[in-house]
Amino acid sequence: MSRAPEFIALSDAAVRAVAGANSRHAALIEDAFGVLVETPGGGVSLSGDAKSRGLAKKAVHAIAERADQGLEVGEADVRVAIGQVRTGSGAAPGALPVGRRGQVAPKTATQAKYLDALAKCEMVFGLGPAGTGKTFLAVAHGAGLLLRGEVDRLIVSRPAVEAGERLGFLPGDLTEKVDPYMAPVWEALTDILGADQLRRRREKGEIEVAPIAFLRGRTLSHAYIIVDEAQNATRLQMKMVLTRLGEGARMVITGDPSQIDLVNQFDSGLAHAVGLLEDVKGIGVVRFSSEDVVRHPLVERIVRAYDADAARQRGGRPS
Q1: Would the pTM of this model clear 0.85, i.e. be above it?
Q2: pLDDT in tens, 280-289
Q3: What is the structure's pLDDT at 223?
Q4: Which residue among 6, 81, 140, 173 is buried most deeply as judged by most CB within 10 Å?
């Protein structure tokens, strides 16, 4: 920090946006790039080595440009600007990371629609059969947000239906109790982040696992929340988890309405929530079908056979 500071002349609106309430935005920039941000008046002063100042300057200009357009600049917008600088100018806010098997990318038209909804909407419902990629792509999108610093935490939750009210009597701590139900999520995160980085981020609390019941009473801010197997959440649980969303947070809810394990299937909160919220601004709903199955080709044929049987049970009425 010993080098002479660099002054960037900005409008008053841009200076306020870069500083943020209680200098919160400036603190985020400082932490991200290892610089000192000061606002002496008429602009912003950056202190640090040349490379760090250069990166911070790009973020400052992006924030200032938004402010000068008359747009609101919140903490989430600052995180996006920082993330874009970190990943390079060609990386969009919703860009997917590169997994162990290469770049994560959609394989079907519905998957592409799903990823578009994840990038644009604060809350997305992904509905459909197993093997369509709805959980994997949600995890990949969330991991990308975490890696770019656009969210502080990645929280994965799922109804532990098999454990029921006996969850507290299972051996081990909370993570050990719930992990068996989170295997698909951990497999996806391991593929994208690698085992070592996943372990480090879990130890630091950047990646958290919790059954739905343990989210009660919390406000989840600046987090990306994945609610998996949501067809097994009751209506009351679904309302509770959907209302945990805090400032700068995003949520994706995945599930298959045809695979309900609840004793009372009519108490499933997934289809009920979609019916209530599908037309609400900021919420996206994407429905997958057997044509989107990207596992073994036999899985698609199995799903089609079960769909046909369900149609016969309904007297041939379409779903």
Answers
A1: no
A2: 999 999 999 8
A3: 94
A4: 81
